[in-house]
Amino acid sequence: MPELIQRAGRAVRDPTMHGLFLLMFESWALQVQLPAADEIGSDPDQPITGMVKKTSSKQDRTSRACVRFVQSRTCLRAFLAGYLKDDSASGLTHSTPWCCDRHENLNFHLSYFFLGDPDHLRIIFQPAGPVGVKRKRKHLRTKADRQPLHEKLVAWRSEAHARHENQSVYPLTWICDDQGLELLSKTHPDDLQSTQNIIELLDETEEWGCEFAEQVLDIIQQFNQLQAGRSGLERPMKRINIIPFMPIQNVDSM
């Protein structure tokens, strides 16, 4: 939710212009049944399922505040003011032509900003799933390189944990669990070319990525360069078969 609010505030910075913040969401967000507000405790950003795992889906990771924001039928600006505990009058004021699209008798249409029939914009933005797409076979790192890389990643995790300020509170697996290290060592180098690849592969947060993804990428790239150099030196020479020259003798025909 805080990221949503920050992005909304960046719609436009020029005071002489008006910006529009458009939030697109999937249809399941309107179907989620949430408990009453007094049953979720003091944390409005608690995930829908309460607790999440590395294998939790996007839906399970979504905060309850975001779902309530989407499902709200009243003023969205008032919702955000309540979320931020902003009781000031400025929390509900706006300098744009519209506050939000939850007000009645509001001359606001998405067709002002997007081409096409506004009644069909919901269909346009609905993500389409793959139809008849054959699943590609995973491209993995060679088996001979997996164990050496895994050992380097294990050593990195121990060093990163030892120098971390919270090392006395969090275990080693807080940085990256054993399954994550194994997955990194098995994934083909072509699929690990950026920090974003690391974050998506491990299903980690952007906050985790800012702290650890660059370190992991450096370990993997250094290992790749080392292996590439070794393979070039150890590559055997091609064997050339030399056929000795044999003179052809003339044979008289009978």
Considering the chains and any ligands shown, give keywords for the structure.
254 residues, mainly alpha, DNA polymerase, domain 1, 2 domains, 9 helices, elongated
Structural notes for this entry:
The chain has 254 residues and is mainly α. The chain is 38% helix and 0% strand. The protein has helices at residues 2-9, 58-61, 64-71, 76-83, 121-124, 143-162, 178-186, 195-202, 206-233. The longest helix has 28 residues, at 206-233. The protein starts with a helix and ends in a 21-residue tail after the last helix.
Short note summarizing the structure:
This protein is mostly helical and 254 residues long. Helix content is 38%, strand content 0%.
Nearest-angstrom radius of gyration? 29 Å
Q: How many helix segments?
A: 9
Outline type? elongated
Unreliable segments (pLDDT under 50, ≥5 consecutive)?
123-133
Largest sheet: none
Task: Give the number of domains.
Answer: 2
Distance separating the two termini = 101 Å
Strand-helix topology:
Layout: H1 2-9, H2 58-61, H3 64-71, H4 76-83, H5 121-124, H6 143-162, H7 178-186, H8 195-202, H9 206-233
Helix pairs in contact: 6-7, 6-9, 8-9
